[in-house]
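In this supplementary section we document a worked example of the pipeline. Step one takes a protein sequence of length 359 as its only input; no multiple sequence alignment statistics are reported here. Step two produces a three-dimensional model, which step three serialises into structure tokens for compact storage. The input and output of this example are shown verbatim.
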Amino acid sequence: MTQALLNRCRMQSFSLFPLLKPPKMPPVTHFHTTPIPHRKSLYKTESKKIRFFVVHRYLEYLKNYDKVLERSFPGAMRVYRVFTVGIKDFARDLKDYFRIVRILNSPTKGKFKSLTRREIELYHQMPKDMLKVAPVLLISALPLANYVIFPLAYLFPRVFLSRHFWNLQQRAEFNILDLRSRLVNNRPLFRCVQAELDKIRGHRLFCKWAEVLGMMGSGVQPKVEQILECKDLFTCEPYHLFYLKGKHVKHLLRIHDLHMGWFRRSRLIERAVILQEMDKAIIREGGVHNMPQDALKNACYIRGLNPMNMRNEDMIDWLNNWIKISNVVDRESWSLLLHCPILLAYNEPSNWTLIYKTK
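The serialised model returned by step three reads:
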């Protein structure tokens, strides 16, 4: 009975609470939403600006660092500039010099004709510059030696350095000092020329040459035509280069700024050849009147004339007179060209002022 009652209760509960179905869900609608923009970090932006500013200021500081050093160490910076600029100029001229040497040593003919006046002057001057600078460069290669040799060379630039390391004032000053050391040999050389006058007594040119020497001794400069009339005297004894006495040769060497060592007469002949080739190059380039002022002064220095306080017109006239003689000189009369520093400039006022100026 009890079991029947329980079954009856179960049947009634199922009829009272029927099974419920789950409610239908409405379809899901997809909406297109705009993405939220990424917000830049204020910290990163400011950091980039600061880094850019610091780098920019650092680069500007490096660009003007030489000015900072010059204010802090003016003496050291002057030495630095002298040697950096000088070594660059020296290296450039050294490269040109070796190129010129290769041209002159080539088997082709007319070697000098392919060179300019400036290149021939460089060929003339560069060996002397190399001898002056070589000890400084060699010693500076030793450990710690540059701390001694560079300041020493800076204090004595005329002794240890070449013209590449000089400023404009030093170039003018040192050129005058070098020229004066050459010009003091003018009078001894003139005395040697006078001493040989008696040996040509009876020569057809004796009277003309005596007149030329008399004019020079009395302070009058002879004309170029008078000198050229006596050209034959320099092709034989006693004025030919191979007949000159030792004392005579010594003063010629000093006037042309040549050392007193070996092969004296051969080096004098080489100097005469270079001087004549310079003159030919001047003519090829349009003549003396086309030369700039600095080139005029340098040409006068090389030939034994003091150009200081001289007008351009006077330098041009003097160089033209020199070239007139140079054009007629040949292998047998090199001696005439070598004597032109006294034949043309012995009584020049600028030379006398330089030699005998009041101290």
